[in-house]
Amino acid sequence: MSTVNFHAMKRIVLLVFCLFSTHIVVSQSFMQTFGINGFMDRYQSKTTISSGLAYTVRYNFMEKEKMSISVGLPMSLGGVAKDGEYGGYYYDASYLKNFRFMIDIPLVVNFNFAGLSTPDNKQLFGGFVGGGIGYHFGPVTKEKVDSYGYLNYDETTQSAAGPVLNGGFRLRFGKNDNNYIEARGSYMKSFLKHDADVIGIQLTFGW
What we know:
Layout: H1 3-26, E1 29-43, E2 46-63, E3 67-81, E4 99-114, E5 125-145, E6 151-172, E7 180-188, E8 197-206
Antiparallel strand pairs: 1-2, 1-8, 2-3, 3-4, 4-5, 5-6, 6-7, 7-8
């Protein structure tokens, strides 16, 4: 191979590498949403419902014209008061003491398709499906039999972790192409039998 051809090949390889690197940088993006959530912690025969605020971050590490693959953290924070501890229209000083907090932090990899799969996809409607692993700390209701044989319920909190499945849709609205609503449903199966399985719903706003 001549010196001229060798240098020409080096230039071609360098050019291809630069174009490929530029494509990778351009085809990655960061997106976020904020909104509300609801969770059902299923423990033994009782289901406890909590609610709060949701914040999701999504990083598309691979993008094409009508789809993307992303890694995300759809985080939630909220809780619920113990039954009968807070009611009416007055402030009860014991409210915070009897409030059971909820934290939900899953790490998921999703396949995103159609609208909002990327910031540049202007289709009206899109969706996503995927899974990962999650950690959940939330309210549960435990059944306990006292020394007299009566069944009682203990309202407390408990941690759980396990695989997560999630999916949902995105709907663009308004004059701004970047505004959209995202609805997400999820299910976490606890690794341990004595921990709660968790069903979650989120409704968030993206910009």
